[in-house]
Amino acid sequence: MVCSSDCAEALSRNEQAVQTILRQGAQSAKASAFYCYLCGGLSAAAGVVAWFMLPSPFLMLFTGGCALVLMASGVWYGRIARGRPPAELTPTGSVSAKEAGSGKAGLGVVAGKSPNANLPVE
């Protein structure tokens, strides 16, 4: 329940903006994961090449360490990208009954309570 049609339009625009931000954040995490995997693979390849062409212990350990850290970062970003999709929120912006019972209520919405419950009604 909203106080006016202007408030309803503003809430709708706000919800669309939040959904867009969440979608773009997931896309950014996927791109970061891909970049980490790519750089980790290149660092691992450089470590192997350094083993045969330039047997420098520092260079091999450094590129191998970078490869491990970058691959771990790729896994981390990938897990973030596969997180809870924005579609789990109901169209009104409130939390679904399933989510309310699981303790996954997000975006500051109190389970079982409309986000507009404290607004005065005219």
Task: Indicate the structural class.
Answer: mainly alpha
Q: How many whole angstroms does the radius of gyration measure?
A: 23 Å
Overall morphology: rod-shaped
Strand/helix succession: HHH
User: End-to-end distance, in Å?
Assistant: 10 Å
Count of alpha and pi helical runs = 3
As a percent range, the share of strand residues is: under 5%
Task: Write a concise keyword list for the protein shown above.
66% helix, 3 helices, 0% strand, mainly alpha, 122 residues
Task: Outline the secondary-structure elements.
Elements lengths: L4 H49 L3 H25 L15 H6 L20
Helix pairs in contact: 1-2
Brief write-up:
It is built from three helices and no strands. With 122 residues, it is an all-alpha fold.
Q: Your description of this structure?
A:
With 122 residues, the chain is mainly α. The chain folds into 2 domains: 5-86; 89-122, no CATH class. 66% of the residues lie in helices and 0% in strands. The protein contains 3 helices and no strands. The protein has helices at 5-53, 57-81, 97-102.
